[in-house]
TrEMBL record:
This is WRKY domain-containing protein. The lineage of its organism: Eukaryota, Viridiplantae, Streptophyta, Embryophyta, Tracheophyta. SUPFAM superfamilies: WRKY DNA-binding domain. Residues 131-196 form the WRKY domain. It comes from Anisodus acutangulus. It comes from the Eukaryota. It is found in: Nucleus. PANTHER family: WRKY TRANSCRIPTION FACTOR 51 ISOFORM X1-RELATED, WRKY TRANSCRIPTION FACTOR PROTEIN 1-RELATED. GO terms for molecular function: DNA-binding transcription factor activity; sequence-specific DNA binding. SMART domains: WRKY. GO terms for cellular component: nucleus.
DNA sequence: CGGTTTTGACCAGCGC
DNA sequence: GCGCTGGTCAAAACCG
């Protein structure tokens, strides 16, 4: 499924994954090193949507490599590592940086996830990110609708809804109670629209093309 | 002025 | 039924 994948599968669950184009994740650490906030989106696995999955990311400045691990809450001992991916790039230049992991492929069809949503199955993914930011820029526009102190965590949990039209996607953001250098982000549901960032990107070549063709006329 | 955030109140689910 | 907990509402405040 992953072709020339660098995934080291330690659990069969990983083989079930597909990529949901409705979900993109932006690496805030890469973003902090550059001013080009929206150049490094990548599509991330969301096929464990009837499970809760934690992703753990670490970024190394020394070799510009990036590691991502997914953990399954189904494991009774929590956070058994089920996959690891690594990719590298040159972060010194935003234009040459390749933030796309070679082991994850785009899947244009998210109909399976949509069907699950229709059947009332919750589409949930959560991941941990080591970041000082209070919220990750994932390309979507969110409206905060609540903040709560929860028993399991000394840190506050923030509640957000997608602010795009009738989109029902929600997300929760809280600092990890065990290690507050990590941010835990949980998404629920599937966006029924493109990310504003994707729309912005798709428009760029069109504008450029029109400018060229009109000027050469 | 319209969209977003804040924050206390309210609600639903669960265990006892 | 009651209390606890997490999630949501909604009015007021805030902000660009």
């Amino acid at each position: 499924m992953f072709g020339s994948s660098t995934f080291q599968e330690t659990n069969n669950i990983i083989s079930h994954q597909t990529i949901n184009p409705n979900f993109s994740f932006h690496d805030p650490l890469i973003n902090m090193n550059q001013d080009h906030g929206h150049n490094n989106y990548q599509d991330f696995d969301t096929s464990f949507l009837d499970q809760l999955v934690y992703g753990d990311q670490e970024y190394s400045n020394s070799n510009n490599s990036y590691n991502a691990s997914l953990y399954s809450q189904n494991n009774p001992f929590m956070q058994q590592e089920i996959s690891t991916s690594t990719y590298s790039g040159n972060s010194s230049s935003a234009s040459s940086f390749d933030a796309t992991p070679t082991n994850i492929h785009m899947n244009e069809n998210s109909s399976m996830e949509v069907e699950k949503e229709k059947k009332g199955e919750k589409h949930v993914i959560a991941f941990r990110t080591k970041t000082q930011r209070e919220i990750l820029d994932d390309g979507y526009k969110w409206r905060k609708y609540g903040k709560k102190k929860v028993k399991s965590n000394t840190n506050l949990r923030n509640y957000y809804k997608c602010s795009s039209g009738d989109c029902k996607v929600k997300k929760k953001v809280e600092r990890d109670g065990n290690d507050s250098s990590y941010l835990i982000t949980t998404y629920e549901g599937i966006h029924n629209h493109e990310s504003p960032f994707v729309i912005y990107c798709n428009e760029m070549p069109t504008v450029s093309f029109l400018n060229v063709s009109t000027s050469s006329w």
